[in-house]
Automatic annotation (TrEMBL):
The active site is at S181, D325. One of its GO terms (molecular function) is triacylglycerol lipase activity. The lineage of its organism: Bacteria, Pseudomonadati, Pseudomonadota, Gammaproteobacteria, Pseudomonadales. GO terms for biological process: lipid catabolic process. Keywords: Hydrolase, Lipid degradation, Lipid metabolism, Membrane, Transmembrane, Transmembrane helix. It comes from Marinobacter nanhaiticus D15-8W. This is DUF3336 domain-containing protein. Gene3D superfamilies: Cytosolic phospholipase A2 catalytic domain (3.40.1090.10). Residues 148-338 form the PNPLA domain. A motif (GXSXG) lies at residues 179-183.
């Protein structure tokens, strides 16, 4: 083995053993340099980008910003974002180097950020802070927001804790988070805490309640028709999440929680529960429903905050309906998230055991990876077709609901714009329906962090404009408040 190969092998081992994103990135830069891809990052030429036009827009934005031409800068910003956002979102731009994409992309985004901040902070004659605030809010509404979507996954879903912690530590955790099944537990744990509580939660994960699963005896299973104790699961959820309603959690944390639940009746539609659509529904009942895997746990009747008396009681919500695992029909509710929250970028953390074998090669390159992708796609298509034919054949059978659920699971999309996935490790499947030990908890969190670090550059780049909108709007809200106070003081 030559010297370069030895160094590369050593660096790859260091990459796997990294204890923080900073260590990982330092090692990744050395590997990129060794592999020669840092030169690729510096070279602007590529068929994936209109480099000359991007550089022209960078120069124009810089010129108008330095000359104080706010109107012209605004116009170029609008035009350049409209022209380039599609190509800048191409995931292939991030498939070459571990540390990021073309430097011209970073330069363009940095100049956009400078331009937005200049327009925000530069005082303009006859334009109040309130007027500018409304302008930025309207522009943000048109542009959209990123959202993090956490899949189901049983015990594998604990790795979402590592994903969210890695994003939080780099200040990249979106304010809009959705979860199904185990992903609902993690999403609710995050969105029910304010920043101080969330810091404590991430720094001391060993303090979380972990005993969610308790198998029933064979006699109880035969009598009840399901395999695990739902009371134990509910205790686990309440201990980690609390008993707030969606509205109460939003007011406490400032984050928008979304939980997917699936119907037990074929004529009912899956629901996305959140502060907008179901503000009074209690989060613990929603999470319990989203975790109700058919055959493992019974279906759930949702509960809502009862505002009579002391306002802390509960009352049935849609009492004639019962709900099950959100992953069955809405593991990743893309369309409903887009409609309700104006989501323009989805970051998906995928850990579903039945999905991982079909997507484990999705982001690899080369002819072998392509063959594996083709093979898994063919198998997936055959399964979906078989279930479709079976569904039509057994239209009046008592097994129709089960076939409908299997068909929904086989045909829905399990990927987003940016994908972070649990690695396919067959030896871990024996743990999928077991409470984690201390060592397991550390392992799952570490897997989540290590799966997130390679995607960090893509997340940072593709959410930068949305994050800049948020920062500008916060500053303008403070400035508008000061202006109102001064105006009221002068009037009195």
């Amino acid at each position: 083995m030559n010297t370069k190969a030895k160094v590369r092998r050593q660096l790859k081992r260091q990459l796997v053993e990294a204890q923080s994103f900073e260590q990982w990135r330092e090692t990744a830069e050395k590997l990129d340099e060794l592999d020669g891809v840092l030169d690729w990052r510096q070279e602007g030429e590529t068929e994936m980008l209109h480099e000359s036009l991007i550089r022209e827009h960078i120069q124009l934005m810089r010129k108008y910003r330095q000359q104080g031409q706010t109107a012209a800068l605004t116009r170029v910003l609008q035009e350049s974002l409209y022209r380039h956002l599609g190509e800048l979102s191409n995931p292939d731009l991030y498939a070459v180097a571990r540390t990021g994409t073309k430097l011209v992309v970073s330069e363009f985004l940095a100049e956009v950020r400078l331009g937005m901040n200049y327009i925000c902070d530069q005082k303009q004659p006859r334009v109040s802070a309130e007027e500018k605030l409304q302008m930025f809010r309207q522009a943000e509404k048109v542009f959209g927001h990123p959202a993090l979507m956490l899949s189901g996954g049983a015990a594998f879903g604990i790795y979402h804790l590592g994903v969210t912690r890695a994003l939080w530590r780099q200040d990249l955790l979106p304010d809009v988070i959705a979860g199904s099944s185990m992903g609902a537990i993690i999403a609710a744990s995050v969105c029910s805490r304010n920043d101080t509580e969330l810091e404590e939660f991430f720094e001391n994960p060993d303090q979380v309640h972990r005993d969610a699963l308790r198998w029933l005896s064979l006699g109880e299973i035969r009598r009840k028709g399901y395999a695990m104790d739902q009371t134990q699961l509910h205790e686990h959820i309440r201990t980690n999440v609390g008993t707030r309603s969606f509205r109460e959690a939003f007011e406490h944390s400032g984050r928008t929680l979304n939980i997917s639940v699936s119907p037990t009746r074929t004529r009912q539609k899956p629901r996305l529960l959140n502060e907008l659509a179901s503000p009074n529904v209690t989060i613990d009942s929603a999470v319990l429903a989203s975790c109700a895997v058919p055959g493992i746990f019974p279906s759930v009747s949702l509960q809502a905050r009862d505002h009579s008396g002391d306002g802390k009681g509960e009352t049935p919500y849609m009492p004639t309906e019962r709900w099950i695992d959100g992953s069955v029909q809405g593991d990743l509710p893309h369309m409903r998230m887009a409609r309700l929250h104006n989501v323009n970028k989805t970051i998906v953390s995928q850990a579903n055991p039945h999905v991982l074998p079909f997507i484990s090669h999705h982001f690899e390159r080369g002819y072998r990876a392509s063959l594996r992708q083709a093979a898994s796609s063919i198998v997936h298509a055959h399964v979906a077709t078989m279930l479709e034919l079976t569904r039509n054949t057994w239209s009046s059978s008592v097994v129709r609901p089960l076939i409908e659920q299997a068909h929904a699971m086989a045909t829905q999309s399990y990927l987003g714009d940016i994908n972070i996935q649990f690695p396919f490790k067959p030896t871990l499947y024996r743990k999928v329906l077991a409470n984690p030990t201390d060592a397991d908890l550390d392992m799952y969190i570490r897997i989540g962090e290590q799966a997130t670090w390679p995607m960090m550059a893509m997340v940072e780049d593709q959410t930068l404009i949305s994050r800049t909108f948020k920062e500008c709007i916060e500053r303008l809200k403070e400035r508008a408040g000061r202006e109102r106070y001064q105006a009221e003081k002068a009037a009195s």
